[in-house]
Each structure stands twice: as C-alpha cells, then as structure tokens.
TrEMBL record:
Keywords: Hydrolase, Magnesium, Metal-binding. Has nucleoside phosphatase activity towards nucleoside triphosphates and nucleoside diphosphates. This is Nucleoside triphosphate/diphosphate phosphatase. Transmembrane segments: none annotated. Gene3D superfamilies: FomD-like. NCBIfam families: PRK13662.1. It comes from Bacillus songklensis.
Amino acid sequence: MGFPIEGETIQIHSYKHNGKIHRIWDATTILKGSRNMVIGGNDRTVVTESDGRTWITREPAICYFHAKYWFNIIGMLREDGIYYYCNISSPFIYDEEALKYIDYDLDIKVFPDMTYTLLDQDEYERHRRQMNYPAVIDQILHENVETLKNWIRQRKGPFAPDFIDTWYERYLTYRNP
C-alpha cells in the first residue's frame, strides 16, 4: 500500500461493512500524503451514490484522513463559517485505484461555533444488527466517537484555528497555478 502524492487527483471510495460500495467522490486533490495521513481538497466534485445517483458538492472542502483513527473529517468552507462533517469510519487505505474506507454510519456535524451533534445513531444500530458488526468493532467505534469529541473540544487537528483555511490556501495553488 502506497500513499497519494501531493498534487495528484484521486477518487475517494466509501464502503459499508459488508464490502458494498457506499459513495464515490470523483476528484480530490492531494495536499499532503503519507502512510499515516492524507489531506485533500475538492470543490464542486461529482459524488456517486451506491444506487447510481449523482450530485455535486456545493462548496470547497478540505478532507482529513488518518491511518490510526477510526474517523475522517471534512471541513466545508461556507459563507457563514466552517462546518465539519465527521464520519466514524475505518482508518483509510490507499491503492492505485482510490483512497478507501468503511463508513460506519455514525457522524458528527460540527458548526462554526464548535457545537456539535451526533447523527445517525438509529442507522448505526440497524446496520450493526444487519451486518453483524463484531463487538470489538462496536467498542472501537464508540471509543473513536469520544476521541473525536475530545478533538473538537480541544480544537485539535482539523479543528485547530486556521487549519482548514491554511490547507484551503494550498488547495487554491493547485486550482489557480
């Protein structure tokens, strides 16, 4: 398993625990890539859902993936501030096809004032039963929900002041050389 190279444009593939594709982001520009962390940027990229429907993202976003943590973080730059959408997920892997992870349903939406809401608990419980998530996975996921909440409260990683703006400026250098 390699890692994406800065400046490269890649796809992001999200799967469900049963191995079925969940969602594909068509084009994300790599801003930093290593074995342990990937930071990418995209704007108005095509997203394809598992049923074939497509839509286009509405605003620029900076995406943060880590090989150790069971979540990824998307910082969306909107007129009234930065909103974050955090997916509880497996750590990422990268192959020549795409950056890939398993989406485990639970999400945290973070508002510009850093208040947050845990989403999709009912969907998580339904899928946990349907796809027989092992108890160890359930425990890991709930521990990572708490880790993510701590990051939000401590303004750590992508939640740090200027993190998203700094990486967005870097993204713009690839869009407007």
